[in-house]
Amino acid sequence: MNDTILLEGLRLECILGDLPHERTFPQELFLDLELVCDELPATRTDALADTVDYVAVAERVRTALIAARCRMIERAAQLAAEAAFACDARIHTVRVTLRKPHALPGVVAAVRLTRTRP
Fold first, then answer.
1. What is the pLDDT of residues 39-54, one digit of tens each?
2. CA distances from 79 to 16, 48, 62, 90, 105 (A)
3. Cβ atoms of 79 and 62 closer than 8 Å
4. CA-to-CA distance for 72 and 61, rounded, in angstroms?
5. Which end of the chain has fewer CB atoms < 10 Å from its terminal CB, N or C?
6. CB of 73 within 8 A of CB of 18?
7. What is the pTM of this model?
8. Which ranges constitute the DSSP H helices of the chain?
9. What is the pLDDT of residues 79-107, one digit of tens each?
10. Which residues pair with residue 47 across a beta bridge?
């Protein structure tokens, strides 16, 4: 059995894009993560040590994306997945949805990817 931990609507501001103004000014982004694990013991033990610390995942992903200054949204999503994997070996699959709501007037640009731990 699998358990999935969801982080939805993580807001961050970072440099993301290839256009001159995108390289200068941080943009608002929204990130959703699905962290898929084998059945977590916390469902029985009610102990933090027996689950994925989603606060640590959120902070590590945020820090990685702010530092990366990516040009492509696809690269930023890949880095988010890698940061999540680095937080906890129990995570075997990560689904990332990264939204860039101000990329175009009236349109939310986004990418969604799924990565499985090698």
1. 999 999 999 999 999 9
2. 12, 25, 10, 18, 26
3. no
4. 16
5. C
6. no
7. 0.94
8. 20-24, 42-45, 54-68, 73-87
9. 999 999 999 999 999 999 999 999 889 99
10. none
